[in-house]
Write a structure and sequence with these properties.
The complex is a heterodimer. By secondary structure, chain A is α/β, with parallel strands linked by helices. Chain A has 8 helices and 10 strands. In chain A, about 40% of the residues lie in helices and about 25% in strands.
């Protein structure tokens, strides 16, 4: 059973400290949601877990399968089984979705077996078609340049498609609901739910509770000013939806005052 | 792709240039008499060659390509009795690139030429062979087709290139459609060698041909070669030429070419350039849309590394109404290499309803590499549509991180981005074999230098 274990993680960008000691454990099979107002460090957490070079780790560790992944390059983390669905997926002009997916799959295969010859094309095409069907994607999508001219909904679906193809053990969904209308949100959520299971741990990072109506979390955490200040079950998300974040903020301020 | 403004640096170079001159006598290039039109053409070229100075950075067309380090006197024409180099031609260069099989192939290696042509084609009046031999066998034809497009007085290298005895001639009579491609290979070995070549492709009315021409030489860290080449193309009324030109010289070659394609009414040329070799290349490629409704497409792929320097000077000349040109040149650069592209669209008075497009995109992969891109328009007609664009970009960190987050290592991510950058060029190439060659070039250029 794999587990992503975040211990006292402090992260800065430039001179500014954004994460001020975050601890969190995500096991395979669990769905965690991290909620919080804008600018509290949620996306910094997502990028740092994936190894974005702009974020500097000041302290703490992130262990995955017994390895401190903070020492690893982003591509190594991916090949270990960590996945980040980007809030703003990046366009790669001239590289088709199919070519990109095959390159990524083969990179994963080769890291497990250096002698691997790559996924046979018929097997790859069959697998890609299946996953695209699951996400109600037009087969022509495979021939389009990755994220180039995609609508918001297409980008997010393409992220989940990559997740379905790469089959990570831990997936971080960074604001996957942003920019989606309700239909697209349903499709994306259904996709994630299909992938849910004992082998997948999910960290849903979101500003709004809306996505959690579709992807039911086992645990909800509230992040504020670079710290996780409140944790609970799915009901915490509903409570936040009704009450907003002010009560948490007050609680934190009072707590600090005491 | 990040776009940064084009930077053109002017610098005064008043360094004393040692006198540059070839050590070339008339006998070295086999000039004896002016009996045939071909003799006359070459004898005239010899006079022009002697009269013209070497270009320097003070000449506008050569401003960004400094050849003051070139010592032309080092280079000599191969003696007539030199051993054949045919045995040294790598087998892989003989493979067809544009189809399963050729209709004909000519290999020029040193002083020897080897020609093959499907029998039925020679029966239909197709002439395909070595320049000097065609001149001997078909003097009248040669008078018509030799020197019609490129004139020796266009420059020192045009003049010296016109002295070539070796080269390829393809003449296709009216209404002749050649289904399978023709292939020519110009192969060179040796050292301190002055190599001259002349390629003529002449398509009469409604003829149709695919032609692949490759220049290549053996990699040799010491010895160098100077190549001066002429390419003349005529696409008659309603004729159709697909012309692929691959420049795969070794890194010791100084390469100078003057190329011009003249397209008559309703004719079409699809002109594909792939440049990966040579130490320095200065290439003039002109498209002349001479007849109404003529169409030309020019697609360029180049990749420089090490200290390579490529300078492609293109022009799209619209001389008649309803003519269409479409140029896309894309290049990647690494190490301390350099590329220059300067392009001109010219629309003559009266060439109405003309549609001209030119675009040059560069991807600079290291901080010491530099690309210059200089588009130009000169429009003397009223009702035309001409557009151009030029960009110089580099690989951004965000796509690299995105690809890395999917498990793709940095070198592989860079290769993927570079392949993606070239995709619009690949899409314009209808030949699998040529595309595969370009992908192989990308792969080898992106591997560390040996």
């Amino acid at each position: 059973m794999s587990e992503l274990s975040i211990r006292n993680l402090r992260v800065g960008i430039g001179d500014k400290e954004i994460l001020k000691g975050v601890s969190l454990d995500i096991k395979q099979g669990e769905v965690h949601a991290v909620m919080g107002p804008n600018g509290t460090g949620k996306s910094t957490l997502a990028y740092t877990l994936m190894g974005h070079p702009a974020y500097e780790v000041l302290a703490g560790e992130v262990c995955f399968n017994g390895v401190n992944i903070l020492d690893l390059e982003p591509d190594e983390r991916s090949r270990m089984g960590i996945f980040l669905a980007f809030q703003y997926p990046v366009a790669i002009p001239g590289v088709t979705v199919a070519n990109f997916l095959r390159t990524a799959i083969n990179a994963h295969r080769r890291s497990k077996d250096p002698a691997d010859k790559g996924i046979p094309i018929p097997e790859f095409l069959k697998m890609m078609r299946q996953k695209m069907e699951m996400l109600k994607m037009d087969p022509a999508f495979a021939g389009r340049y990755l994220n180039d001219g995609f609508s918001g909904g297409e980008k997010k679906r393409a992220e989940i498609l990559q997740m379905a193809v790469l089959q990570p053990e831990i997936a971080i969904l960074d604001e996957t609901d942003s920019g989606l209308d309700i239909d697209a949100l349903k499709i994306v959520s259904e996709g994630v739910n299909t992938l849910r299971g004992p082998h997948l741990g999910v960290l849903v990072i979101t500003h709004y509770q809306r996505i959690l109506n579709y992807i039911k979390p086992d645990f909800v955490h509230v992040m504020m000013d670079g710290r996780i200040v409140e944790s609970g079950g799915a009901e915490l998300a509903l409570h936040l939806e009704e009450q907003g974040y002010d009560w948490v903020r007050e609680k934190v301020t009072n707590g600090t005052a005491q | 792709m990040e776009k940064s403004p084009k930077v053109v640096i002017r610098s005064d170079r008043h360094q004393a240039t040692p006198a540059q001159e070839f050590m070339l006598r008339a006998s070295d290039v086999g000039l004896n008499g002016r009996e045939s039109a071909f003799d006359e053409y070459r004898a005239n070229a010899f006079d022009v060659y002697r009269a013209l100075p070497f270009p320097s950075v003070r000449d506008e067309a050569w401003r960004r390509t400094d050849i003051s380090q070139l010592r032309p006197s080092m280079y000599e024409i191969n003696p007539d009795d030199e051993m054949s180099e045919m045995d040294t031609v790598p087998a892989a260069l003989l493979d067809p690139l544009a189809a399963e099989k050729h209709a004909g192939q000519i290999v020029i290696a040193g002083n020897s030429a080897r020609v093959e042509l499907d029998k039925d084609l020679s029966g239909r009046g197709v002439v395909f062979g070595d320049l000097e031999r065609v001149a001997k066998s078909y003097p009248d034809l040669m008078e018509k087709i030799c020197g019609f497009a490129v004139k020796p007085n266009e420059g020192k290298f045009a003049a010296v290139g016109s002295l070539a005895r070796r080269g390829t001639v393809l003449y296709v009579p009216k209404n002749t459609v050649i289904e399978k491609p023709l292939h020519s290979l110009l192969w060179a070995t040796g050292s301190k060698r002055l190599l001259l070549s002349h390629l003529i492709i002449y398509l009469e009315e409604n003829a149709s041909v695919t032609f692949v021409h490759e220049s290549a030489s053996a990699e040799d860290p010491v010895n160098s070669i100077l190549h001066a080449g002429i390419v003349e193309i005529y696409v008659g009324n309603g004729a159709n030429l697909r012309f692929v030109e691959l420049q795969s010289w070794s890194r010791q070659v100084w390469n100078f070419t003057h190329e011009r394609a003249v397209v008559m009414a309703g004719g079409t040329i699809d002109w594909i350039f792939g440049a990966v070799g040579s130490k320095l290349t200065k290439n003039f490629s002109d498209l002349v849309l001479q007849g109404a409704g003529a169409t030309g497409r020019m697609s360029g792929f180049y990749f420089t590394d090490g200290d390579q320097h490529f300078d492609h000077d293109t022009s799209q000349n619209h001389l008649a109404p309803h003519t269409t040109s479409d140029l896309l040149f894309k290049g990647a650069l690494r190490d301390a290499s350099r590329s220059v592209w300067q392009g001109m669209i010219y629309v003559a008075p009266g060439a109405e309803k003309t549609d001209g497009y030119q675009s040059n995109r560069n991807l600079v992969l290291s901080k010491n590499a530099r690309a210059d891109s200089i588009p130009g328009l000169e429009i003397l007609a009223d009702d035309v549509r001409c557009t151009h664009g030029a960009t110089i970009g580099k690989i951004d960190p965000e796509p690299l991180f995105y690809l890395a987050s999917r498990g793709i290592s940095k070198p592989e991510a860079e290769r993927l981005i570079v392949e993606g950058f070239f995709d619009p060029i690949m899409e314009r190439i209808p030949f699998d074999g040529v595309r595969t060659r370009f992908y192989q070039s990308i792969h080898s250029k992106m591997s560390p230098l040996p």
